[in-house]
User: Which sequence fits this backbone?
């Protein structure tokens, strides 16, 4: 993989800064030693030192690298949930995760927050990426998830004499919840992922009414995790589960699907970000039948989609925050399709493209606790950038096409895109 040159300049670009500012035509981004030294109009750019590498964007877009805020590196495009804990051994799951990490980076995602991982593989995946052993996004690990006994992720019947080893930690009561978090502490995770509520994907744990964890269990998870400087998130669809999570002190919510006014007030009071993951619902509706999803489950996804879109719009309109991430790793919602989540929010939910890009960059970095390092194109930030052949504000769907990427940069080094193997030093064309 390419090492970052001392100085790189990107010219003839339209700058979309990720912070919501106006697009800057004919912009220059100057990178020195892996960090952004200048980003703005060409007329105000500083003089370049001799030997700087030049990248001509030819009127395309330069923007922050994308952040996948609900990433399942160890999900391997399964056709049903049950495949996750019985299909492959940990050795093969690890290889699949490494391949998914490479793919995410190639898709323009320079950072990702894990939303749960088989066998705690994401902890070691993060180390391998940071040590330069494999390419992948800057990663926040969450390891195995925590779910109440009989909840959404507890599907093996007792007569099989098979537990959920490798996938989730099942808890029954506050003491077991604390013990589960302590196991994750030992393994080095940063985020604790829980399942406070059910989901349309499970007919026995329907999202409208089923609570898969008690408030006492949730509060025990948060207190223990925060004591160890870890953050907590949860799969929250049912309204009461959303409120329980917010009252328990959750740091983010996954989905936040059926949110009433009281839940919204609680959310705004604590400024908790939500990752709706709604393209998954659309894909489940459009493609689920070909992969064997029962009609009742597809109908549940339709209702979830409608409720989720309404909640997402209300959150943003009220001044709340949304991250972008989409439960990719199912047969109908495979790895590599990540940017379809962004297209969905523009074309189906009616949001402004600039706003969606901010959700997918700035808010994603905030969720990861690293907004001071990346997520916007600003002086002093790491040069984690995406240079695109085209105008992403005019057509956000071009982010779905990796062939349109001139460069995916991490810390100023070109890691993917059409220029990934170009020589450094002279103009890169």
Assistant:
């Amino acid at each position: 993989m390419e090492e970052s040159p001392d100085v790189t300049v990107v010219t003839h670009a339209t700058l979309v800064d990720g912070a919501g500012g106006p697009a800057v035509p004919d912009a220059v981004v100057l990178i020195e030693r892996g960090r952004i030294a200048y980003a703005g109009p060409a007329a105000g750019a500083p003089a370049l030192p001799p030997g700087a590498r030049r990248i001509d964007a030819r009127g395309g877009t330069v923007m922050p690298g994308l952040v996948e805020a609900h990433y399942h590196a160890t999900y391997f495009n399964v056709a049903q949930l049950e495949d996750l804990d019985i299909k492959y051994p940990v050795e093969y799951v690890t290889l699949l995760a490494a391949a998914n990490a490479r793919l995410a980076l190639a898709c323009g995602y320079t950072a990702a927050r894990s939303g749960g991982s088989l066998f705690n593989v994401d902890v070691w995946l993060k180390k391998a990426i940071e040590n330069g052993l494999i390419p992948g996004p800057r990663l926040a690990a969450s390891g195995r998830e925590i779910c109440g006994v009989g909840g959404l992720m507890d599907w093996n019947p007792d007569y099989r004499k098979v537990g959920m080893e490798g996938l989730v930690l099942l808890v029954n009561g506050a003491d077991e919840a604390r013990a589960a978090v302590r196991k994750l502490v030992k393994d080095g995770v940063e985020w604790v992922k829980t399942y406070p509520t059910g989901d349309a994907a499970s007919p026995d744990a329907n999202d409208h009414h089923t609570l898969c964890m008690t408030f006492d269990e949730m509060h025990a998870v948060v207190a223990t995790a925060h004591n160890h400087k870890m953050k907590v998130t949860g799969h929250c669809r049912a309204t009461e589960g959303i409120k329980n999570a917010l009252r328990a002190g959750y740091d983010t919510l996954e989905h936040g699907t059926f949110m009433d006014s009281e839940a919204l007030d609680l959310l705004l009071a604590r400024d908790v970000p939500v990752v709706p993951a709604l393209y998954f619902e659309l894909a489940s509706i459009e493609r689920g039948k070909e992969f064997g999803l029962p009609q009742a489950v597809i109908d549940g996804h339709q209702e979830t989609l409608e409720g989720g879109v309404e909640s997402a719009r209300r959150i943003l309109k009220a001044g709340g925050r949304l991250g972008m991430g989409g439960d990719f790793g199912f047969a109908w919602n495979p790895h590599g399709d990540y940017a379809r989540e962004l297209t969905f929010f523009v074309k189906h939910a009616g949001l402004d493209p600039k706003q969606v890009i901010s959700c997918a960059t700035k808010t994603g970095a905030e969720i990861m606790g690293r907004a001071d390092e990346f997520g916007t194109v600003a002086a002093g930030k790491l040069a984690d950038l995406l240079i695109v052949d085209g105008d992403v504000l005019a057509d956000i769907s071009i982010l779905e096409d990796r062939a349109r990427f001139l460069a995916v940069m991490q810390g100023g080094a070109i890691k993917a895109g059409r220029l990934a193997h170009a020589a450094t030093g002279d103009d890169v064309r």
